[in-house]
Amino acid sequence: MECESSGAPLRPRILVAEDNPSNYKLVEVLLRREYDLVHAVNGAEAVRIFQEQGADLVLMDINMPVMDGYEAFRLIRELAPDAPVIALTAYAFETDRRRMFDAGFNDCLAKPLRVDELRTTVAGMLARKSNL
User: Is 91 strand, coil or helix?
Assistant: First the structure.
């Protein structure tokens, strides 16, 4: 990990694409101590932010206005084929999960989010990315 001029390590940046303010607030409360969070309120904004700022990991809501999570994911993968992206969804059926994995998402977390599952999944995915 790179260091800032102060010698402090840079914190991983997580792009959170989530249109529901209360869902974003939950993610923010759970992750803000360890990570720098950037919020996008729709898929198109997520793609723009990723293109402009990059991110170490993306948390992608599937059902969003303007551009859904599948399309935003596809465009982000065109920009960065190895970018880790975790789908966040209320669609928790096995067929829905299979569709997300078939689309190429690295993982899928069902809403309502569980605290330990979110933290563990994010930390594990970032650890794997840093070991590549």
Answer: coil
**Can you list the alpha helix ranges (DSSP code H) found in the chain?**
21-31, 43-53, 69-79, 94-103, 115-130
At 60-84, the pLDDT tens digits run 999 999 999 999 999 999 999 999 9
Model-wide pTM > 0.85: yes
* CB neighbour class for 71 (10 Å; exposed up to 12, middle 13-18, buried from 19): middle
Nearest CA to 122 out of 52, 36, 50, 8 is that of: 36
How is residue 124 written in tokens?
A: 């594990």
Closest to 113 (Cα-Cα) out of 4, 7, 16: 16
Q: Quick check: helix, strand or coil at residue 111?
A: coil
Cα 28–chain centre separation: 12
